[in-house]
Amino acid sequence: MDAGRFRLGNPYVALAGAGGSILGFLQLWLDHPDLVDESSADELAEQLLRMYGMSLEEAHAIAHRPLPDGA
């Protein structure tokens, strides 16, 4: 937030939104695994970054980066 990448009001509400999104994603994966593929987690990460105020381009670039070794 200090760097200006995120624009949030109440950080607790933002945390609840992220947590709910992740729980919903996991429920979708358990109930309908055919609707979730390898790129789905990246898509969720991108949408969460955008929800916090990051631009479409920056959120896409960050969410689709390869994970570091050992992750």
Keyphrases for this structure?
71 residues; mainly alpha; 3 helices; globular
Show unreliable segments.
Answer: none
Query: What level of helicity do the residues show?
Result: 55-70%
Number of helices: 3
Content-based structural category: mainly alpha
In words, what does this structure look like?
- The chain is mainly alpha-helical and 71 residues long.
- The chain has a domain at 33-65.
- It contains 3 helices and no strands.
- Helix 2 runs antiparallel to helix 3 (56-63).
- It is globular, with a radius of gyration of 13 Å.
- The relative contact order is 0.14.
Compact overview of the structure:
With 71 residues, the chain is mainly α. 58% of the residues lie in helices and 0% in strands. The two termini are 25 Å apart.
Question: Which helices and strands occur, and which strands form pairs?
Answer:
Elements: H1 11-31, H2 40-51, H3 56-63
Helix pairs in contact: 2-3
